[in-house]
Amino acid sequence: MSEISTKPYLIRALHEWCTDNGYTPHLAVTVDERVVVPREHVKNGEIVLNVGRLATHKLQLGNEFIEFQARFGGVARQISVPVDAVTAIYARETGHGMAFEAGPPAGTGAASDSPVVDDAAAAEPQENVSGSRPQLSAVPAGETPPAPSDEGPDDTDPAPSGGPDRGRPKLTVIK
């Protein structure tokens, strides 16, 4: 018997973390023929889905599929996403989350569920709502992420405690 992937467990854990902290969890998904989403919202073969409790109905974060109902332009739609098509889950307000390597369809045995930890733009999901692209970053242990601001990032803030080299960690690829 083959071992169950860790990816759906990590997605569920980060979804719960976002919810517990009052953040809005978003999934970045690579769209192919197995992904059931409104195609008019797909940009460059990718879609970003709000999977917060207020935006979804009957959300099921399963081991093989993520399924729910959501409204797009006021019309209820059934969404079905294979877990292996998820490339990232992150908090919309902070960008904190985890990215994954996009894997081939389930059953091929070649999928990698290793978290992607990459400073490159490829690890940043395309935001299809506001056009901005969040910077994914790990959540440092023992630190509370800053409260979201409606005014955007402020580059004039002083360096975090611990000196100028102690900024937020960035995701890098682990293979």
List the helices and strands and how they pair.
Elements: H1 7-20, E1 25-30, E2 46-50, E3 57-61, E4 65-72, E5 75-82, E6 86-91, E7 97-100, E8 115-116
Antiparallel strand pairs: 1-2, 1-6, 3-4, 4-5, 6-7, 7-8
Structure in words:
By secondary structure, the chain is mainly beta. The protein has a domain at 7-123: SspB-like (SH3 type barrels, Roll), CATH 2.30.30. Helix content is 8%, strand content 25%. It has 1 helix and 8 strands; from the N terminus they run αββββββββ. The strands form 2 sheets. The chain has a 5-stranded antiparallel β-sheet with strand order 2-1-6-7-8, with helices on one face. The protein has a 3-stranded antiparallel β-sheet with strand order 3-4-5. A hairpin with a 5-residue loop joins β6 (86-91) and β7 (97-100). The chain starts with 6 loop residues before the first helix and ends in a 59-residue tail after the last strand. Mean pLDDT is 74; it is low at 107-135 and 137-167.
